[in-house]
User: Which sequence fits this backbone?
């Protein structure tokens, strides 16, 4: 099946979409202030008219490109194009200052490629058997899994745990208006006819990742980083370097893949952990942060590995591994594809299409990054005054095109302002978006399960998988609160 | 205004806003019918979420209140002239809040004009893009010219793509 999907992906149309997706992803990923999530949500309305598998192939290619593109500005401007490249700045920028921009980019690109390929191999080995196990999950396992995903993401999000929980609850609440899935009664519509269908995922996503980011960009429009003079040579990693970095490459890729699999933990966490591990295990840890190859390799291999790693729970369980995966999950709903354990049964062409496109997109990424880094670095110089207004127009059209009504545009703009406000108050958006997407996935199964058991919640703890998920949630919850209290006490005693 | 005070105000506003949202959600569930076959019913999930959100907001409010008490205590103990910014000694990049506010107003006007059907997508978009671009970049002839080209391309080009190719009638 995978071989067939790979062959299908190599047809002219998918190849064209993958090329466009990776190229756009690399460009957007390289421009600080524009994110992969923004690119994907703005492209979503254009995919309404495409075949659902092709649409997912395009979006996955954008995902791969956007995570990789951040390397360019992280190295040249000390400003990561995407948060996942934050650790690359620590060594990439000093290397560029030392006149080794080409070398930093070259090893970063190769590390990204290796990370992507290692994680892809994991995905191919793990996803189909995991999908078979997940098919056996019932409504109670599903509910517990969603609880676990929300607690995990709230615990690792930036800022306080309480704000992460608030964000997740708010996302869940925003998903409740509309027709009640159990009784078909209109719920929380407050008398507005337009609210009868609830808030559609797309305008909410466009608002949260388009408008809110744009407002942030306008606030910081005066921030102009200094660009280091660059020489674009050595964009291919030598075989000698590859051999020297082999252990670091594999270790960082495995860490990235594992972090990607955990629900809700994004590429930036993967690269931070891999960077820390590389530093701890290095023979020259003192060189980290001064322009050391190992730092760039660890960060870039790990952040690209999280992409395929995060696709594993997405296609097998319907649980997103990061914000972009949550958007991809939303894209599946928009294309009337039911994500979750049954995806391999009901839409195998999509499940395998996603897997094969991740491989081809990584190969394209290697060539596009090597061939076009010079041009992408030039595009980054474009004045924001041209880009920002155009993006707002795209946000508005994208929301309007959903149902041909202005209500969705107001919803989009309202959520944009909400997202900006939440970010200003240091409330992470990742739990919000995961709560929004996963609410229907948790509510309907638990209600169906309760109907089947006559209202008994006992299966939540009597079914082994459900119990394991709940124990993990409880332990994470207690551990995170313990850590926060400990941190607060430490800072208190430090002040005294 | 220093960072801590700013954070305390932001958290207080956030907690109050969240309490308002949870109250609104709870009020919305009151008119929902009681369950018949379904043990939980339509109102259960939003009601539980409203309770949880309200509870979390109250905790945030309490945390913020204690933060404010500590902050005022620390302020009294602080020696003159040693504010947080002065200690850090780092120049913060300028934040253009007013520009963001003006941009939000301009975008609301752009959406409202199309919503009220005062003018169509093409005219509204061209005016919006030129006005917005000029607001961000200033009155520089070169930038205005480039913005005009972008405005024409997005105004007419996107209209053509959406109405003719994707068969979506823009406002």
Assistant:
């Amino acid at each position: 099946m995978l071989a067939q999907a790979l062959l299908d992906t190599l047809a002219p149309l998918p190849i064209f979409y993958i090329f466009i997706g990776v190229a756009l992803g690399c460009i957007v990923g390289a421009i600080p202030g524009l994110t992969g999530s923004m690119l994907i949500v703005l492209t979503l309305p254009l995919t309404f008219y495409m075949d659902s598998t092709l649409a997912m192939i395009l979006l996955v290619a954008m995902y791969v490109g956007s995570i990789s593109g951040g390397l360019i500005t992280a190295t040249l401007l000390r400003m990561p194009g995407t948060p996942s490249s934050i650790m690359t700045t620590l060594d990439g920028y000093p290397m560029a200052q030392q006149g080794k921009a080409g070398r930093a980019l070259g090893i970063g690109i190769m590390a990204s490629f290796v990370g992507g390929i290692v994680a892809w191999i994991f995905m191919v080995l793990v996803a189909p058997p995991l999908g078979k196990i997940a098919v056996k999950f019932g409504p109670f396992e599903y509910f517990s899994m969603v609880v676990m995903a929300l607690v995990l993401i709230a615990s690792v999000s930036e800022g306080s745990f309480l704000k992460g929980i608030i964000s997740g609850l708010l996302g869940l609440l925003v998903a409740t208006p509309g027709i009640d899935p159990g009784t078909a009664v209109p719920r929380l519509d407050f008398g507005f006819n337009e609210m009868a269908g609830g808030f559609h995922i797309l305008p909410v996503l466009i608002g949260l990742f388009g408008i809110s980011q744009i407002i942030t960009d306008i606030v910081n429009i005066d921030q102009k980083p200094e660009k280091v003079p660059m020489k674009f040579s050595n964009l291919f990693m030598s075989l000698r370097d590859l051999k020297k970095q082999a252990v670091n490459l594999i270790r960082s890729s495995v860490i990235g893949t594992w972090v990607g699999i955990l629900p809700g933990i994004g590429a930036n966490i993967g690269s931070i952990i891999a960077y820390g591990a590389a530093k701890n295990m290095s023979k020259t840890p003192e060189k980290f942060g001064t322009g050391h190859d190992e730092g760039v390799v660890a960060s870039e291999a790990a952040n690209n590995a999280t992409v395929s790693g995060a696709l594993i729970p997405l296609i097998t369980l319907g649980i997103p591994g990061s914000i972009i995966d949550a958007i991809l999950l939303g894209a599946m709903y928009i294309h009337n594809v039911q994500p979750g354990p049954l995806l391999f049964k009901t839409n195998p062409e999509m499940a395998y299409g996603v897997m094969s496109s991740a491989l081809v997109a990584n190969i394209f990424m290697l060539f596009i990054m090597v061939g076009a880094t010079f041009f992408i670095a030039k595009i980054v110089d474009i004045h924001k005054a041209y880009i920002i207004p155009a993006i707002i127009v795209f946000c508005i059209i994208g929301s309007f095109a959903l149902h041909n009504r202005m209500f969705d545009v107001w919803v989009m703009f309202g959520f944009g302002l909400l997202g900006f406000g939440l970010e200003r108050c240091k409330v992470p958006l990742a739990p919000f978006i995961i709560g929004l997407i996963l609410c229907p996935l948790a509510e309907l199964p638990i209600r169906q399960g309760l109907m089947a058991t006559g209202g008994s919640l006992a299966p939540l703890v009597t079914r082994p998988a459900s119990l394991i998920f709940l124990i993990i949630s409880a332990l994470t919850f207690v551990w995170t609160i313990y850590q926060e209290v400990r941190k607060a006490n430490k800072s208190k005693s430090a002040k005294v | 205004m220093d960072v801590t005070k700013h954070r305390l105000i932001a958290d207080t506003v956030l907690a109050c806003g969240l309490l308002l949202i949870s109250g609104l959600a709870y009020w919305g569930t009151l008119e929902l019918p009681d369950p018949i076959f379904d043990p939980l019913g339509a109102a259960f999930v939003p009601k539980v979420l409203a309770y949880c959100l309200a509870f979390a907001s109250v905790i945030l409010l309490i945390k913020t209140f204690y933060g404010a008490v500590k902050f005022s205590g620390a302020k009294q103990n602080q020696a003159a002239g040693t504010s947080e910014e002065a200690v850090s000694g780092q120049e913060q990049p300028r934040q253009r809040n007013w520009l963001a506010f003006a941009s939000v107003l301009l975008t609301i006007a752009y959406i409202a004009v199309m919503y009220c059907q005062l003018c169509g997508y093409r005219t509204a978009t061209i005016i919006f893009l030129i006005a917005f671009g000029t607001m961000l970049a200033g009155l520089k002839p070169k930038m205005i010219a480039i913005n005009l080209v972008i405005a024409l391309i997005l105004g007419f080009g996107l209209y053509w793509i959406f109405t003719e190719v994707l068969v979506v009638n823009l406002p």
Summary: Chain A touches chain B through 62 residues (CB under 8 Å). Residues 2-495 of chain A form one domain.
